[in-house]
Amino acid sequence: MNKNILQKFRIAIVMLLSVASISAQKKSRIVEDFNRNWNFKLGDYPTAIQSDFNASDWRTLQLPHDWSIEGTFDKDSKTKQAQGFLPAGKGWYRKVFTVSSKWKNKVVSIEFDGVFKNSEVFINGHSLGMRPNGYISFAYDLSPYLHFGKQKNIIAVKVDNDAQPNSRWYTGSGIYRNVRLVAAEKLHVAQWGTYVTTPEVSKEKATVDFKVSIQNDADLPKEFKVVTNILDANNRSVAQLESTEKIGANSNLEKGQHFIVNNPKLWDTKNPNMYKVVTKIYEKSTLVDEYETPLGFRYFAFDAEKGFSLNGVLTKIYGVCLHHDNGALGAVANFHAIKRKLTIMKEMGVNAIRTSHNPPSLELLQLCDEMGLIVQDEVFDVWKKKKVTNDYHKYWDEWHKRDLEDFIKRDRNHPSVMMWSIGNEIREQFDSTGVRITRELAQIVKSLDKTRPVTSALTENVPEKNFIYQSGALDLLGFNYKHADYPTFPTRFKGQKIIASESVSAYETRGRYDMPTDSIRFWPKKYGETFDGNPDLTVTAFDNIASYWGTTHEENWKAAKKYDFIAGTFVWTGFDYIGEPDPYPYPARSSYFGIVDLAGFPKDVYYMYQSEWSDKTVLHLLPHWNWKAGQLIDVWAYYNNADEVELFLNGKSLGSKVKKGDELHVAWKVPFEAGTLKAVSRKDGKIVKETEIHTAGEAAKIDLKSDKKSIKNDGYDLAYVTVSLQDKDGNPLPTADNLINFKVTGGAKIVGVDNGYQASLEPFKANYRKLYNGKCLVILQSNKKAENITLEATTAGNISLGTVSIKVE
Ligand code: GAL
């Protein structure tokens, strides 16, 4: 037997043994997906908590669900432009379910990952509690009120997102994250009841401190065994400890365990090696609970001069800020949608995400752990002083401590999380209350986790005027924008560790090109040359229109790259998001700041980052090649790994260019002539890469490309299909805006359509969409039918239909 087979054989035996022991032990924690078969209705129905309530006219749906994204854009919407003119309001969810009588002696709880917002949960007529914060995860114990056996239980959730405006960006409305039902034995690991840290890490050896909080809800004291295993990615135990404990009736016990792991595989952004801690609790020889905690071995540091290092290696933070919406799906937290978003970012070379400006979904953190993305985990956009009338300031006094504690407890075991941000551009930085509140929040964080720096995204960079800074409680100073002042930072903030927590805020529309491109213009007007907007509410995708508080992508990156003491930069933003389209008015309804548009199609500047941040060889040409004869076109190329780029038009050389100094692209001015524009990059005279773009002729056919060949038959999995028109030779038509109709058969339904145009008023839920600058997107979701999927696309005129087939597994 060769080594590989032996290894597999050994894994199989270990797995068999553990399966056998678990089944022999029979009962332990049961975690059930509780997303299906909910009824929903917009409006307020306080009597829906009663068992005899008639919900026959309520919709049946599967969570996660966002009702705002299903609505129509309304100029007079109370949510206003900041939330993309989509509706909010009140809504109720209701679910009828039975619980096996075998669960009678268990502790049954319901876990909500996030409900936007002001939720109140009722079980069989009893209120379990309210939760104003729409981004916080929470759970309730249902046990005292449950019926077992055949008798029905009614769970009802009231969601009140009516008081508007309440956010500076699109929030969505409803139970927009996952819900689970958890049945544990009376003796169990408490909610978020573990905490794992790695005080010493090296390639040779790591120490692990593990704390577990055990809850006994029984009226009797208990004696039990805690067995903890650290498992590697192949589920092999690399360390194990067990101890026998005693716990009183209805009480809690905290147990600490200390491990040594030899030769740990370190977690980093290229090799995100994950481990997990599995805690088993036995009463006599019966397994009563099993609980998993993620674990990664890494060490990191911020330095006032050198910036950030991961596992001892200096690593510039190539970050993006992301809001939580998933484009056409709205706020719905779907694992596959989040994975696509992060994959597109990772391919660009991103190594860090800032969860601006709220606690993220669980899935985002799990994916960042698995994919090797560093996280700046952010909790608040406001404290006690408001930014908009009905935002979180209303709940500050009563809830901030609880929300912050829950946020840290839920997220502190994820190795990807390396910074806690206690707030974004908080108003209190400008007055002395900032000192007290910052100290209080930092102290709350430190009481739960001392292993990560506490930071805050600041805008005031005059030290005496910034009271959050004055508190002395931040470990890491985050500055939003301020790129022009970087050279002064080491003297202004002597000895401080600094990161650009937010940067850029440049505006762009995918596929739109305005020329000439020679100057940077600011929008809205403040200083320098001004951009006054385009009549069709677009902004050129040549990177030269910036907000007056920000700058272009290139100028920002030049500044961040130049200074080692800037640990890195979080660009505002990785993706366009719904809301905040200003300075354009209605019908503009989503932002222009993304490096990638709302549909997930990269704007050209994506390749500037890819050429600087990733290992990929890049040679990207812009704009497209469909113009009027003789028109003078600015041609830009982003490239790397080469020392020159030569441009050819229809075979004729237009000369070679080289990036000079800190330049990030090269450019030519070319009188347009239809045909082929080709760029060739070379290093030491040898060709590195060639890129061609072609003038497209008449539309001949629709092209459909799915990002996946097959999807799972689970009701959740997604396939993203990109739609474009091609001429008879297969060249894409870069400015096409045809209306495309879709028909799907088999195991999927259409859950969203989009084209990335920030001022489109077409609905996100439809079976049609206009192309915008040549592209649109259809999002398909498994409908649980075990049938292969066919998506068909048709359009008017003499254009052949497009089809794509996707398998269902
Ligand atoms: C920042 C703010 C972000 C976003 C951005 C737009 O000041 O932190 O949330 O509003 O401006 O440029």
From TrEMBL:
GO terms for biological process: carbohydrate metabolic process. InterPro entries: Beta-gal/glucu_dom_sf, DUF4982, Galactose-bd-like_sf, GH, GH2_Domain-Containing, Glyco_hydro2_dom5, Glyco_hydro_2, Glyco_hydro_2_AS. Pfam families: DUF4982, Glyco_hydro2_C5, Glyco_hydro_2, Glyco_hydro_2_C, Glyco_hydro_2_N. Belongs to the glycosyl hydrolase 2 family. This is DUF4982 domain-containing protein. Keywords: Glycosidase, Hydrolase, Signal. Residues 32-182 form the Glycosyl hydrolases family 2 sugar binding domain. The lineage of its organism: Bacteria, Pseudomonadati, Bacteroidota, Flavobacteriia, Flavobacteriales. One of its GO terms (molecular function) is hydrolase activity, hydrolyzing O-glycosyl compounds. PROSITE patterns: GLYCOSYL_HYDROL_F2_2. Coiled coil: none annotated. Residues 195-298 form the Glycoside hydrolase family 2 immunoglobulin-like beta-sandwich domain. Residues 306-457 form the Glycoside hydrolase family 2 catalytic domain. Residues 630-688 form the DUF4982 domain. Residues 1-26 form the signal peptide. Residues 702-797 form the Glycoside hydrolase family domain.
